[in-house]
Amino acid sequence: MGRKKKKQLKPWCWYCNRDFDDEKILIQHQKAKHFKCHICHKKLYTGPGLAIHCMQVHKETIDAVPNAIPGRTDIELEIYGMEGIPEKDMDERRRLLEQKTQESQKKKQQDDSDEYDDDESTASTSFQPQPVQPQQGYIPPMAQPGLPPVPGAPGMPPGIPPLMPGVPPLMPGMPPVMPGMPPGMMPMGGMMPPGPGIPPLMPGMPPGMPPPVPRPGMPPMTQAQAVTAPGILNRPPAPAAAVPTPQPPVTKPLFPSAGQAQAAVQGPVGTDFKPLNSTPATTTEPPKPTFPAYTQSTASTTSTTNSTAAKPAASITSKPATLTTTSATSKLIHPDEDISLEERRAQLPKYQRNLPRPGQAPMGNPPVGPIGGMMPPQPGIPPQQQGMRPPLPPHGQYGGHHQAMPGYLPGAMPPYGQGPPMVPPYQGGPPRPPMGMRPPVMSQGGRY
Amino acid sequence: MSLFGTTSGFGTSGTSMFGSTATDNHNPMKDIEVTSSPDDSIGCLSFSPPTLPGNFLIAGSWANDVRCWEVQDNGQTIPKAQQMHTGPVLDVCWSDDGSKVFTASCDKTAKMWDLNSNQAIQIAQHDAPVKTVHWIKAPNYSCVMTGSWDKTLKFWDTRSPSPMMTLQLPERCYCADVVYPMAAVATAERGLIVYQLENQPSEFRRIESPLKHQHRCVAIFKDKQNKPTGFALGSIEGRVAIHYINPPNPAKDNFTFKCHRSNGTNTSAPQDIYAVNGIAFHPVHGTLATVGSDGRFSFWDKDARTKLKTSEQLDQPISACCFNHNGNIFAYASSYDWSKGHEFYNPQKKNYIFLRNAAEELKPRNKK
């Protein structure tokens, strides 16, 4: 592509500003994302075509192109692939691209797959520390087919492979499942064959692109060639490199050096994990990773990527924290407090009625007070507090019995019921307040 | 003909005793209903391991009971036995040899239920409800791992009243999964820790959560060599993250997907986002199932990154799910999970456990 009057060097979608390797893919994208009828899912060819279809078949009017960015939703503009794009938008695009070439594309990350669900950009970009270039329209759902640029990130410090330049692994362009997927995680492998005329890895690859970063074992060249084929996930030069060897079959130890860190106790261990013969176990320090670069980068990646994620939409300030459950476009079907559903439910007196009390009658819900104010006042009583007074030995009523607790010796139990249903529960423990559901039968037997 | 075999078509035959009334939506998928289901919400389900011939299902409920059924090939479910705790049962699991069932409860204890003798004894004690219980079978040790809201993870030799080991968690344990030699624990405040269990359990890595909302369920998946290699984590915000422990390219290999949401983005009404109550991986295909507060279950292929199927909507949330040891049966429980608070709780409403033939629907999508 050397013609001066090139439409932007790469085909791009006017409706959502995404880049594509190939016009064919662009068209498939448009059909799937912008010209698809939301009622019957029929894919039309153009915006006006979709409008007419909806009107004739479903008797519904549609006034905006689905999944289009604001300003580009005109349903009456007949755009097909790259044809029909107004000249001024083309110019704007060219300008933006130039700007971008300077700082090169930021990493782009595809979190969500098209096939799974559509997505809002914020929610999905959990790995994406940077704001997406507006023009790229990094709309998560649409993985940019082979958007090489991203990798370019000059900032890409070598050794941070994971920092995802963002080759969206999925090539949503293809409505059906990811073609490029197979190697799936191994982008590197074989560079996507299908790529129609895969342009060499981004000629545009900004010089910033760190040359084959010394990835452990990553053949430098791979980057250059790499991918680009639509769907090649592998874009990011350096990072991608990571792939090389680990073609699926290679089994890397899940926890490298796990053995060493533990003083390799191979023999039988006693009840406290100390080997029965002798060697004292070492401390439980996380084993050193065999591939330090990876693990670190992974760690740093996750940390960086999550830094922008910040706290969840909810403001988790202090207990009881609350969630932001409603927003303009969505509503979280969950109680407002940021405690789990089970914790909330367990606070109800109904579910605390039968909890063992140290020799007391069944009791409702003692106020949390005695707990020494561990929990700031909460709507209910945090489960931890259920009747367990702190002063009590941690094991509650069982504490004192532990030593003598025959319960722990199998076979010392008086046979309780043998019949299938309803076998009295505990074998041990002081008589408890009769459970709401069971006859006192068990207390008798259970006494120790 | 075996209802749950791979060659048969499962279907409406079976013990569905609740005829299909026109408006009744409690079983829109027409799956087999388990008889004598618990009287209150079902919090956990677990099928017996392959070491036991046949299929036995265990369910723990908020009625403080743990029930056991035998599931026969023709779809019949026969209640076998029951045990009680003094508080709601939050988690259940089997020992590897299928002779014991471990149960974790709000009564701050975990018990070991010997099925042969039908006796249950307490084997663990915490300072707060025990949320998770898992059996660990290592070459040089075996133990029970319990995670609790008291922010500890304890490992118990069932013969001793004191834990073999106690590990501190950053926050209350919300969910966990164990596939030797890996254990994954998710806590409140979006905490996420992976442990390695070789020689003895130790913390391997604390991971920054790939999700922005409260963690709710976690399930470990294995690679082609049958070794655990990552996990799926579900949150209350209708989203699941697939996370590999040592991926070649984390940014590309790890991803999240949305699920259990209502309405499309095309409609004007705000989208309802439901919690993911459970995730289970098919033991043979490696594909996964998710169940949500929206009352639907979905099957997904994480490698092809596609959805395989979504069910019709049940009239209650689906609170738990699991596969049997060979992946022929998918069990899911329909009962209220408290997602809409106390107001929507109807104690009269029946709680169901459904069984579905999972041999065909969870086959991975062919990748191009």
From TrEMBL, chain B:
InterPro entries: WD40/YVTN_repeat-like_dom_sf, WD40_PAC1, WD40_repeat_CS, WD40_repeat_dom_sf, WD40_rpt
A GO cellular component entry from the record: nuclear pore
GO BP: any one term: regulation of mitotic spindle organization
GO molecular function: RNA binding
Pfam families: WD40 (PF00400)
Region feature Disordered, mapped onto this chain: 15-34
Keyword Cell division: yes
Keyword field contains Oxidoreductase: no
Location of this chain's protein in the cell: Cytoplasm, Cytoskeleton, Spindle pole; Nucleus
Keywords: Cell cycle, Cell division, Cytoplasm, Mitosis, Nucleus, Repeat, Transport, WD repeat
Repeat positions for WD: 82-123, 123-166, 276-310
Family of the protein in this entry: Belongs to the WD repeat rae1 family.
Assembly, per entry: Interacts with NUMA1 (via N-terminal end of the coiled-coil domain); this interaction promotes spindle formation in mitosis. Interacts with NUP98. Interacts with MYCBP2. Interacts with USP11.
Record protein name field: Rae1 protein homolog
Organism: Vombatus ursinus (Common wombat)
Organism classification: Eukaryota, Metazoa, Chordata, Craniata, Vertebrata
Gene: RAE1
